[in-house]
Design a protein that fits this description.
Elements lengths: L4 H29 L2 E5 L4 E6 L6 E5 L9 E5 L4 E9 L3 E3 L5 H12 L3 E8 L2 E6 H10 L4 E3 H4 L4 E3 L3 E6 L17
Parallel strand pairs: 5-7
Antiparallel strand pairs: 1-4, 2-3, 4-5, 6-9, 7-8, 10-11
C-alpha cells in the first residue's frame, strides 16, 4: 500500500519532533553540567481558540513571521550558539532543507562570531555540521547535499539524546576552529 502525501507529511513531522526532543534532552544535560544554556526557539504559531474541558484547540501559523533557526543559547564562557535541526530517512541531506531566511540568520550570526551549525539526522546517525562547511558546500562544490561519509568527522554521540556538542571522535564543539569565523 502506497502512502499518500498527508501520511508522509505526518510521519516526517513526527520524526522531526522526536529529533528535536532528543536534542532538547541534550540541552537539559548540558544545562545540568553547567556547560551551556540552549533553548528551542518556538515556531511562529498561536492558539486562536481552546476548549478548556477537552484541551483541544485551533491554531495557526503566522504567515508574516518567518521560521527562525531551531536552537539558540550560550556556552560556558559566553560564546553564543545558534543552529537548525534537520532530519531525513534518506541516505543524504539536501542543502535545500534550510529556508533562505534561516540561512540568512545563520550567516549573520556566523559573521558575528557565534558558533553556527546544522544538527543533522540521517537515518539513525547524527551530525553537528559547522555552518562554515554547509555554506562552503553550497558555494564551491558541484552538488547540493551531504552524505554520511562526507560528515563522518562531525558525527555526535547518541545515548537517547543527540549530544550535539560531543563528537564520537572525542572532539568538543567549543574547541573546534571550524565552528567560528576566522578573523585575521
Amino acid at each position: 500500500m502506497q502512502k499518500n502525501r498527508s501520511q508522509i507529511s505526518r510521519v516526517n513531522n513526527a520524526q522531526g519532533k522526536n529529533f528535536e526532543n532528543q536534542i532538547m534532552s541534550a540541552c537539559l544535560g548540558y544545562l545540568y553540567e553547567g556547560r551551556a544554556c540552549i533553548d528551542k526557539i518556538p515556531e511562529p504559531f498561536g492558539v486562536s481558540k481552546k476548549d478548556q474541558q477537552t484541551g483541544m484547540f485551533k491554531g495557526r501559523f503566522f504567515g508574516n513571521k518567518k521560521a527562525q533557526p531551531d536552537f539558540q543559547g550560550t556556552l560556558k564562557g559566553g560564546k553564543s550558539i545558534i543552529f537548525e535541526a534537520k532530519t531525513t530517512t534518506k541516505d543524504k541531506i539536501s542543502l535545500k532543507v534550510l529556508s533562505s531566511h534561516q540561512e540568512a540568520l545563520l550567516e549573520k550570526h556566523y559573521q558575528l562570531g557565534a558558533i553556527t551549525a546544522v544538527c543533522v539526522g540521517i537515518n539513525n546517525d547524527f551530525y553537528f555540521v559547522p555552518y562554515a562547511l554547509w555554506r562552503l558546500c553550497k558555494e564551491q562544490w558541484d552538488r547540493q547535499y551531504f552524505t554520511k561519509e562526507d560528515l563522518k568527522e562531525y558525527k555526535v554521540r547518541f545515548n537517547g539524546a543527540v549530544n550535539f556538542l560531543d563528537f564520537v571522535n572525542g572532539n568538543k564543539v567549543e574547541f573546534m576552529k571550524e565552528f567560528v569565523i576566522c578573523k585575521g
